[in-house]
Automatic annotation (TrEMBL):
<dbReference type="GO" id="GO:0005524">
    <property type="term" value="F:ATP binding"/>
</dbReference>
<dbReference type="InterPro" id="IPR027410">
    <property type="entry name" value="TCP-1-like_intermed_sf"/>
</dbReference>
<comment type="function">
    <text>Molecular chaperone; assists the folding of proteins upon ATP hydrolysis. Known to play a role, in vitro, in the folding of actin and tubulin.</text>
</comment>
<dbReference type="InterPro" id="IPR027409">
    <property type="entry name" value="GroEL-like_apical_dom_sf"/>
</dbReference>
<comment type="subunit">
    <text>Heterooligomeric complex of about 850 to 900 kDa that forms two stacked rings, 12 to 16 nm in diameter.</text>
</comment>
<dbReference type="InterPro" id="IPR054827">
    <property type="entry name" value="thermosome_alpha"/>
</dbReference>
<keyword id="KW-0547">Nucleotide-binding</keyword>
<keyword id="KW-0963">Cytoplasm</keyword>
<dbReference type="InterPro" id="IPR002194">
    <property type="entry name" value="Chaperonin_TCP-1_CS"/>
</dbReference>
<keyword id="KW-0067">ATP-binding</keyword>
<dbReference type="InterPro" id="IPR012720">
    <property type="entry name" value="Chap_CCT_eta"/>
</dbReference>
<dbReference type="GO" id="GO:0016887">
    <property type="term" value="F:ATP hydrolysis activity"/>
</dbReference>
<feature type="compositionally biased region" description="Gly residues">
    <location>
        <begin position="530"/>
        <end position="544"/>
    </location>
</feature>
<dbReference type="GO" id="GO:0005832">
    <property type="term" value="C:chaperonin-containing T-complex"/>
</dbReference>
<dbReference type="InterPro" id="IPR027413">
    <property type="entry name" value="GROEL-like_equatorial_sf"/>
</dbReference>
<dbReference type="InterPro" id="IPR017998">
    <property type="entry name" value="Chaperone_TCP-1"/>
</dbReference>
<dbReference type="Pfam" id="PF00118">
    <property type="entry name" value="Cpn60_TCP1"/>
</dbReference>
Length: 544
């Protein structure tokens, strides 16, 4: 008998060929089943509890996928496309996972019958290319005629993005806020210049948009009450300096043998602090913000001189203030000159629910705004924030690429029809494959119906018929359990979402199809014997 050849490390697990492909597809299917029900305006939410017991309620595909902690190597691809969709366009994260899963499901019978994956991949690529051409041809360019029209368009896109979320009842209210927030930014539309703050309590409608920077009042010492709480034309000193007494004494060991010497040390400490304070005062600042604590002596000192101060300001808020108001964050008190101070037109401290907020408005440098969200439970606010993030991203995208398509499955049905028509013109395996992908696209309207409790078969039949007659914008009407022209109904989505979702889904499907072997190394640190049945046998390599 020949000796066994040991190729891989002990405990390595590998499987290959068709069964591997099919098992990867099945794994993706189970992931898709996990997020399937969240799609669309009537989608359900998921409550996910992590190992530490933190509960998250979400409807957002990317968030759910992230929290699921998937370890299956092939299924992770789906997590990645959801994440990339989230980063790239911000919405359409459930759709992308669903599409990828459905493409795989539709081509699975072909894999099982032994069609070579390369042939399938080629067909998917061809279908994708046809879809891209069609979307670009169909997308309605919104010619920027007037500010009002642009606003109306943006609000509709934001409303469509939010209609599938927990806050869908307040979508009109929030779409106005979101559009205001995005329009207040400068050309580049930097996302980090929109701050979102959450204050539990109150109702959603009490949420407000502050044009400028706002952050929660920081911890403050006695003497704070006396400081003024509102200024016009203020000069802001941004610091990274500790203005507390204790600091110096902690840093050194001092030996003294009489009270007088000790007094000197104490005096010196006070002197150091007072010098710093005096420098800040001399610079002409009337608002002092510091990343580090501002102690009671300093608070009192500033209050006596009509200066507002806040210590322990979170870094991101300080940075945003710096970007918006100009100036620089100083780490020593020596160089505080008027030219490093930030400027803003109006500063005030305002009560929002149970919290006090510091608001800086009329910032000259960068355009920025802050959303202060109100609402019941913590988890609810967090989901609201995620939904608004989706809507904000959508509005930004729409401003950049101002073309839209109709949602509610309309565009998917039209693409499906296109592919079906195309498949009839070609012969061979490709015909069947393209037809399968055409069927796969129908998952979006089908799932929208299923999630709303509609008869999906019936509605899909109506949609197919309508599209065959040339009604290219017909999609699911979620309110009437029927079909409607979703372009007229203003269920609009930026075409970039669909382009990105289809491309990512097709790429993910191709990637999963092109893997025919998984080789898993034993985990580092794990004893080789624990590597599982198959690996063990191979690893032993006993010469016989
Ligand atoms: P995703 O994470 O993919 O954005 P959503 O849960 O937000 O998932 O659902 C988006 C889908 O819901 C899109 O296909 C969109 O066209 C559809 N949709 C949104 N609003 C409506 C509506 N009012 N009527 C019909 N379909 C809608
Ligand atoms: Mg969405």
């Amino acid at each position: 008998m020949q000796p066994q050849i040991v190729l891989l490390k002990e405990g390595t697990d590998s499987s290959q060929g068709k069964p591997q492909l099919v098992s990867n597809i099945n794994a993706c299917q189970s992931i898709v089943d996990a997020v399937r029900t969240t799609l669309g305006p009537r989608g359900m939410d998921k409550l996910i509890v992590d190992a530490r017991g933190k509960a998250t309620i979400s409807n957002d595909g990317a968030t759910i996928m992230k929290l699921l902690e998937i370890i299956h190597p092939a299924a992770k691809t789906l997590v990645d496309i959801a994440k990339s969709q989230d980063a790239e366009v911000g919405d359409g994260t459930t759709s992308v996972v669903l599409l990828a899963g459905e493409f795989l499901k539709q081509v699975k019978p072909f894999v099982e019958e032994g069609v070579h994956p390369r042939v399938i991949i080629k067909a998917i690529r061809k279908a994708l290319q046809l879809c891209m051409e069609k979307i670009n041809e169909m997308a309605v360019q919104i010619v920027e005629q007037s500010k009002d029209q642009q606003r109306a368009l943006l609000e509709k896109c934001a409303a469509t993005a939010m209609s599938s979320k927990l806050i869908h009842q307040q979508k009109d209210f929030f779409s106005r806020i979101v559009v205001d927030a995005v329009l207040s930014l400068d050309e580049l539309l930097p996302l980090n210049m929109i701050g979102i703050k959450k204050v539990t309590g109150g109702s959603l409608e009490e949420s407000q948009l502050v044009s400028g920077v706002a952050f929660k009042k920081t911890f403050s010492y006695a003497g704070f009450e006396m400081a003024p709480k509102s200024y016009d034309n203020c000069k802001i000193a941004l610091l990274n300096i500790e203005l507390e007494l204790k600091a110096e004494r902690d840093n050194a060991e001092i030996r003294v043998d009489n009270v007088k010497e000790y007094q000197k040390v104490v005096d010196a400490e006070w002197q150091i602090l007072y010098n710093k304070l005096a420098k800040i005062h001399e610079s002409g600042a009337n608002v002092v913000l510091s990343k580090l604590p501002i102690g009671d002596v300093a608070t009192q000192y500033f209050a006596d001189r009509d200066i507002f101060c806040a210590g322990r300001v979170p870094e991101e808020d300080l940075k945003r203030t710096m970007k918006a108001c100009g100036g620089a964050v100083m780490t020593t008190a020596n160089d505080i000159k008027p030219n490093v101070l930030g400027l803003c037109e109006h500063f005030e401290e305002r009560q929002v629910g149970g919290e006090r907020f510091n608001l800086f408005q009329g910032c000259p440098n960068a355009k920025t705004s802050t959303l202060i969200l109100r609402g019941g439970a913590e988890q609810f606010l967090e989901e609201t924030e995620r939904s608004l993030h989706d809507a904000i991203m959508i509005v930004r995208r729409t401003i950049k690429h101002d073309s839209v398509v109709a949602g509610g499955g309309a565009i998917e049905m039209e693409l499906s029809k296109l592919l079906r028509d195309y498949s009839r013109t070609i012969a061979g395996k490709e015909q069947l494959l393209i037809a399968a992908i055409a069927k796969g696209l129908e998952i979006i309207p089908r799932q929208l119906c299923d999630n709303a409790g509609f008869d999906a078969t019936n509605i899909l039949n109506k949609l197919r018929q309508k599209h065959a007659q040339g009604g290219q914008w017909f999609g699911v009407d979620i309110n009437k359990e029927d079909i409607s022209d979703n372009y007229e109904q203003c269920v609009w989505e930026p075409s970039i979402i669909k382009i990105n979702a289809l491309t990512a889904a097709a790429e993910a499907a191709c990637m999963i199809l092109s893997v025919d072997e998984t080789i898993k190394s034993p985990k580092a640190g794990e004893p080789p014997m624990a590597g599982g049945g198959m690996g063990m046998g191979r690893g032993m390599g006993r010469p016989m």
